[in-house]
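Q: Predict the bound structure with zinc ion.
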Amino acid sequence: MIRPAARLLIATLATLSLAGCTAAAVSSPSPSSTSPVAGTPVDDFTPVLASTISIPRALPATDDRVHIAYELHLSNVTTQTATIESIDVLDDSGQSLERLDGDDVTPWVHVAGTTSPGRTIGPGQGALVWLDVVVDSMDDVPSSLTHDVSFAFEPGALPIITDEMTERLATTEVDTSGPVSISPPLVGAGWLNGNSCCAVTPHRGAVNPINGEYHAPERYAIDYVQLDENGSFLTGPADELDSYPYFGSDIVAVGDGPIVSMRFDLPEQTPGGNPSGLTLDEYGGNHIVQDLGDGVYAFYAHLQTGNPLDVEVGQQLVKGETIGLLGNTGNTDAPHLHFHLMDSPSPLGSNGIPFVYDSFELEGSITAADLDAKIAAGGPFDIDAAGAGSEADLYPMWLTVTSYPAG
Ligand SMILES: [Zn+2]
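A: Predicted complex:
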């Protein structure tokens, strides 16, 4: 169920020839290299390039930790294979906040042109790395991050490329302004948070090549299904909408602001199967994009067809107002609400913004193994009530079950 809008991990990168002379002094490839040439800036030779998709921003979550979830794009511009041996994420004082070694790197890396995780980047290939740097509190969020990435290079063409190289890459500022505070987009109990941050769920994996650049709009997106008192979201044949009791639940505005775009013309999909033949602008199904101000936009997707609340573009929505009904339109195989915040009105050509809910109840959580084992049957899931209680100003982590008050 509940698949990403588009999991497109495609990059075509030219392989550069590094033969020939250079006018610039090139130092040792070590991050701690120094130049003996007086007055000359120290340059590092970095045959694998890296940059962040967007500026990282911290997120306090229901696991009582603060997550800094972001992505690196790597480009191996050599004629040799480069295998990532380790990734060390350092704060502005050089302290390691997160380190991945050897095979622990693999689940967090996807090489362009491949269909499964892997850490060996071929000549001319690119790769995406998903990072989840965790600190104890917002006070511990660094003002910048950098990365020491160690590569094992296939022996080959250029003497300057040694078998093992550690590159300092993708130094970035961190947005320390904190998450955006909103109210929940749903009302009632038993809402299971599917595909949300910060593991490499389908939402985090949906880093898409849009408008000539990678974008990560679904970085913090949540897919909601509602569990009944037995812990199930499916009560009959999987291919009938009536088997999903929460189909038609109210979707409510998470803040004040106008509707900037919407559509309600798409039909409900038959649940229990994967739709095909959708165009890019149909992936979100019927949807509303709301301008919350300060460059923040809310995206409510897969809504029921026909605009049942009769909303219109330009309408000023009020926090808590019902704006649509939970549906099964677009790229969906079971009724659910897909919700995220983003930094532009484009649901795919944007980057995700972290958010917290001002007030909600944490009912508990289920395990990934339980989800995998029972998803086809729609449950019943075993909800562990550890940590249950009233919460404020936190993001509900993947696999949590939450309850949202009315109004
Ligand atoms: Zn979704």
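A: The pocket of zinc ion is lined by residues 2, 195, 203, 221, 223, 338 (CB under 6 Å).
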